[in-house]
Amino acid sequence: MGELAGRQYVGAPPRSGAHAPPSAPAQAEEKAELRAKHTAPTLATTPAEERDAATPLVFARERTPGLCGRPPGLAYANPAVNGNRCLSGGGSRRSARPRLTLPRTRPEVGKLGPERLSPTSPEFPRPETGTPATPRRLLSFYPSLPSAANLASRAQPRLSLIERHLDVKPPPLNTPYSSDRAALPDDDIDPQQAAVLDDEPTMSTQEAHPTLLIPGPIEFDDAVLQSMSHYSESHVGAAFVAVFGETLSMLRKLFQTTNPASQPFVISGSGTLGWDQVAANLTEPGDEVLVLHTGYFADSFADCFDTYGAKPTQLKAPIGDRPQQDAVEKALKERKYKLITVTHVDTSTGVLSDIKSLAELVHRVSPETLIVVDGVCSVGSEDIRFDDWGIDVVLTASQKAIGCPAGLSIVMASGRAIEAFQARKTKPASYFGSWKNWLPIMQNYEAKKPSYFATPSPQLVRALHTSLTQILASPLDQRFARHKEVSQKIKQAVADLGLKQLADKPENQANGMTAIYLPEGMAAAQILPNLLQKKVIFAGGLHKEIATKYIRFGHMGVSVTDPRKNDIDRALDALKSGLAEAGYQAP
């Protein structure tokens, strides 16, 4: 018994003869009877079965695969169900329990609806005795799922909370800033406390966080950060090559150069890599370099030249000031310099140099000297007219007023600088920073041709592309004027507190940062923690001679240009109250 031949079922009437198979008419009659039972249930749904709709259906493995039309490997917790099973070999096991027939079609596991064998569905097996079905559960082998009867009512509230995150499209790239975007719906499942959110500078897609107001890195616009989440792509694929080419072209507009002989470079690295490019490509051992000193970064640039064998001479100014024109003219007349370097805004002191006047002086007194500008803390917040002022190199980085994450070294080189590189007598002392390797790569990318020397960062380049798109969406003069307006507001607030700046002369004060002397006897370590408690981050001093006596307030990029943000006002309030908590009484 149990052989496939004859398909005999437990509990069926005995056949004539010990093993006599049924006649053909009998087989046809039995099949018709079973088919009718599978499609036409005789029992109405009972209240108990309706309650059973809330019970998840669960399957369990059975050691012996069934042959009765139910899915192999399924066993039921209800004894009335397990008692009526067919066996494949190994004899029979008769039971007086009610006969139960199961659908011949295997249900789709995990599928909702009648095919999932919901207790309320017509296809769900019922005992033939007419007794109401008792609530039952199935032992779990597959994951437990809600029944189809009440899945929608149970799932809808939760799905309504989730779908806003799954279905909401990312905010479009509006220019110039995210303040132009449509407001997203309120998030009523945000785990942050409302009191914290009310005090935090929130943006549409960023977590609440302390406002970063140091002289770089700075706060980022939402669209810039979303550009970083672009899927992985080939650095020589057509899509990325097009984006990189547009990025290089937009840099020409930012630096205000239309001369085809000039060349922008974008290489993975920090602003310091720009120093290496200048020193390795434009100087040779023994070349004289004049470094104008306005703070910490002039010392470092001079050290970089020394590393490559050049001979740097520093022309230092008092802290908070810049070298005077007559002193620079005198130095240029005394010695022939291959390069002169100037830090446009020194991040350690906030001192602004007058690039236009300096370039005019150099062209008049020493026209063969190349003019190199360290614009790490100025590009994007200060006016730089590459062609009009006759600059040869401007180096910068992505993380300051340009408004991107750190990781890109950006250099603009003039045709004269490229010619000086090509005329050098010795090989560049740097391999990675050599323009011999990078110049054809950048030229190809700008022409939107794939090229390779070292792998760029597609995500960072896309972020730079987005930021430059925003910056160039309005006239540069408006951007610089806005930075100057906010800078003057901050500097007036500092003066109202009775505090002084390192750059005490208005003509020496930068648009993008302010270096503030602390009250006598107060150290940066006393005030910076107070500001952090108020969700504002300033930087401590960096100039090695006075590092503990001042703090630095960065105000550039989206914190200044986005009218919806109140970063600056909050920072000024935090500064005032933080000083009071540290024991300072403003006049």
TrEMBL record:
Task: Give the SUPFAM superfamilies listed for this entry.
Answer: PLP-dependent transferases (SSF53383)
Sorted UniProt keywords: Aminotransferase, Pyridoxal phosphate, Transferase
Claim: Transferase is one of the keywords in the record? yes
InterPro entries noted in UniProt: Aminotrans_V_dom (IPR000192), Aminotrans_V_PyrdxlP_BS (IPR020578), PyrdxlP-dep_Trfase (IPR015424), PyrdxlP-dep_Trfase_major (IPR015421), PyrdxlP-dep_Trfase_small (IPR015422)
Keyword Repeat part of the UniProt annotation? no
Q: What biological process terms from GO does the record include? A: glycine biosynthetic process, by transamination of glyoxylate
Tell me the enzyme class. Answer: transferase
Per the UniProt record, which EC number(s) apply here? 2.6.1.44
Where does the Aminotransferase class V domain lie?
229-543
Q: Which GO terms describe its cellular component?
A: peroxisome
The ranges of region (Disordered) come to 1-137
Which co-factors does it depend on?
Answer: pyridoxal 5'-phosphate
Q: Which family does it belong to?
A: Belongs to the class-V pyridoxal-phosphate-dependent aminotransferase family.
The protein, known as:
alanine--glyoxylate transaminase
